[in-house]
Design brief:
Blueprint: E1 7-14, E2 19-29, E3 35-43, E4 49-56, H1 59-75, E5 79-83, E6 102-104
Antiparallel strand pairs: 1-2, 1-5, 2-3, 3-4, 5-6
């Protein structure tokens, strides 16, 4: 069975600890035609965010890392949301709470 994965958005909001974190996990093709697992994280609503792209020969090769990241984010108190369409990560949409940007998913 072929795996299909486009990306996930994780949110962690804890007002008592002043936490408003976002972690985005994407599977995308780069400009050279190679596939990468892209991770973007930081505080929602700011320009302070980091990114890491790791190339993989296939989604099957990246799948163990995707599963590890998802488990870790959930274990650390993040809530997972499925992407419905392409996200723009400019300053206006970085909080990722615009209408239709993502939807809550129950189980991973």
């Amino acid at each position: 069975m072929e795996r299909v994965f486009y990306g996930l958005v994780f949110r962690k909001i804890n007002k008592e600890k002043n936490q408003n974190r976002v972690y985005v996990l994407l599977w995308q093709e780069n400009l050279f035609g190679e596939w990468e697992l892209v991770r973007i994280w930081g505080r929602a609503g700011t320009d302070a965010r980091r990114m890491k792209a790791t190339p993989y020969p296939s989604l099957e090769a990246a799948w163990p890392e995707i599963r590890r990241i998802v488990r870790k984010r959930i274990r650390h108190g993040y809530r997972a949301f499925a992407l419905r369409h392409t996200l723009s990560l400019d300053r206006e949409t970085w909080p990722l709470n615009g209408a239709g940007a993502f939807r809550r998913i129950g189980r991973i």
